[in-house]
Design goal:
Layout lengths: L4 E5 L4 H15 L4 E7 L9 H15 L3 E7 L8 H14 L3 E5 L6 H16 L8 E2 L2 E2 L7 E5 L9 E4 L4 H9 L22 H15 L5 E5 L18
Parallel strand pairs: 1-2, 1-4, 2-3, 4-7
Antiparallel strand pairs: 5-6, 7-9, 8-9
C-alpha cells in the first residue's frame, strides 16, 4: 500500500481543525489521504471516547479520506518511547505516504509537542533498514516519507507556505461541526473549554480568512517546513495560471 498524504494528530479533531481543508482538497484532486489520531481523547473535558470516535468517523467521511485510524496511545501521556516510535514507524511503513502532516514543534498542549517529537523520530527511523518492524506477520520494508509538514494549532508561526482552501472551506467546516461534543451548547452542564466558547468556530473562520488574505484568496491553511521546499520552476509558484 502506498498513499499520498498521512495527517497525524494527537487527538480526534486536531487534524480536522487545522488542515481539514487541505485534506479535502487533496482528495478532490485524486490524492489518497489517511488520517491517524494518536489518542482517543479520553482526558478531554467534554464528550467520551466513544462519542469522539463516532464524530471522527463522520468527519472523515465528510472530508472523503480513504481511512481514519486511531493508535490508542494514552491521552495526556504521549511518550516518545521506543515502543511508541515503533508503533508510528509500523504505520508509516505500512501506508508508505509520500508526505506526512504533523503538529508544530512549539505548541500550547504538551500532547501536541510530544506528538511532533514522536512523529519526527518515527519519520527518520522508519527509513533505516536495520530497525526492523513487522505487521500482519510480515517484516516491513523501510520507508521514509519525502517530506513532513507541520500544521498550526494554538500558537502561530511564520508559514513556509499557505494552501488555498477557498473552494473546500464549507466542506472543512461541515467536518469540524461533526465534533459537536466539543463545541458550545447553551444548555450544557459540562465545564467550559477553549473550544466550547460561543465564538470558537467564528475564530476558526477569522484565522482562515487571515491566512487566505495573505495569499490573495478567501481562505487559507498555513504550514511550516523545517527544510527548504523544492520546486521545478517559477511556474510552480504562480497561483493564477491564466
Amino acid at each position: 500500500m502506498a498513499i499520498d498524504i498521512l495527517a497525524i494528530g494527537a487527538h480526534p479533531d486536531d487534524v480536522d481543525l487545522t488542515c481539514g481543508g487541505t485534506l479535502a482538497k487533496a482528495v478532490g484532486d485524486g490524492r489518497s489521504v489517511v488520517i491517524a489520531d494518536l489518542t482517543r481523547g479520553e482526558l478531554g473535558t467534554r464528550g467520551t471516547p466513544e462519542i469522539r470516535a463516532r464524530e471522527a468517523a463522520q468527519a472523515a467521511s465528510i472530508l472523503g479520506v480513504a481511512e481514519r485510524r486511531n493508535l490508542d496511545l494514552p491521552d495526556g501521556n504521549i511518550e516518545v518511547s521506543k515502543e511508541n516510535v515503533r508503533t508510528v514507524m509500523t504505520l508509516l511503513r505500512e501506508l508508505r505516504p509520500r508526505i506526512i502532516i504533523i503538529p508544530h514543534s512549539e505548541e500550547r498542549h504538551p500532547d501536541h509537542v510530544h506528538a511532533y517529537r514522536l512523529c519526527k523520530e518515527a519519520w527518520f527511523y522508519s527509513g533505516l533498514r536495520n530497525l526492523p518492524t513487522s505487521a500482519h506477520g510480515r517484516n516491513q520494508e523501510p520507508h521514509r516519507p519525502e517530506n513532513f509538514f507541520e500544521f498550526m494549532q494554538w500558537y502561530e508561526f511564520r508559514p513556509s507556505f499557505i494552501i488555498d482552501v477557498s473552494d473546500v472551506y464549507e466542506t472543512k467546516m461541515k467536518a469540524i461541526r461533526s465534533f459537536a461534543s466539543q463545541f458550545h451548547k447553551p444548555d450544557s452542564t459540562e465545564p467550559p473549554t477553549k473550544l466550547s466558547r460561543p465564538e470558537f468556530l467564528e475564530l476558526i473562520e477569522v484565522r482562515s480568512r487571515y491566512y487566505g488574505k495573505r495569499i490573495g484568496v478567501l481562505h487559507g491553511e498555513p504550514f511550516f517546513s523545517v527544510a527548504p521546499i523544492g520546486v521545478r520552476s517559477f511556474d510552480d509558484l504562480i497561483m493564477d495560471k491564466g
